[in-house]
Amino acid sequence: MYLPLGWAAFTHPEGQTYFHRSTGLRVITEACIYRQEILEKISSWASSIEEALKVKGVKPSSTTELFLEPYDGLETCGYYFVDHSTRSEFWLDQVSTEALDLGQVVSISHLSAS
């Protein structure tokens, strides 16, 4: 099976296959992009997010990766960014800890608003 230019397949230590796009904004997904319809959806969502970054004036660093997780039926997709240099996750819009189902925050100092 062939992957598009810039994409590579890897295997987690636990055995799950994941895919990494190394060109442009780095993208990671566990969705099987060997299937054309999944590849098209992943590419479309990545393009939409890249456009939203431009509109918002956000320039991800070279250590930032976008994780895409399609939901059943490929109608919607969850996402988050990881900046490996700062060891932080972030989204395009502000997200509350309640929405992320995180426990009560004891100290605000460990939360960062980028």
What can you tell me about this protein's structure?
The chain starts with 6 loop residues before the first strand and ends in a 24-residue tail after the last strand. 18% of the residues lie in helices and 27% in strands. With 114 residues, it is α+β, with helices and mostly antiparallel strands. A six-stranded mixed β-sheet has the order 1-2-3-4-5-6, with helices on one face. The chain contains one helix and six strands, in the order βββαβββ. A hairpin with a 5-residue loop joins β1 and β2.
In a few lines, what is going on in this structure?
The chain is built from one helix and six strands, in the order E-E-E-H-E-E-E. With 114 residues, the chain is of the alpha+beta class. Strands 1-2-3-4-5-6 form a six-stranded mixed β-sheet, covered by helices on one side.
Uncertain spans, ≥5 residues at pLDDT below 50? none
β-strand amount = 25-35%
Number of strands: 6
Query: Averaging pLDDT over every residue, what do you get?
Result: 86
Number of helices in the DSSP assignment? 1
Helix content: 10-25%
The major beta sheet can be summarized as: 6 strands, mixed
Summarize the helices and strands and which ones pair or pack.
Elements lengths: L6 E5 L5 E5 L4 E4 L6 H21 L7 E7 L6 E7 L4 E3 L24
Parallel strand pairs: 3-4
Antiparallel strand pairs: 1-2, 2-3, 4-5, 5-6
Keyphrases for this structure?
globular, single chain, 114 residues
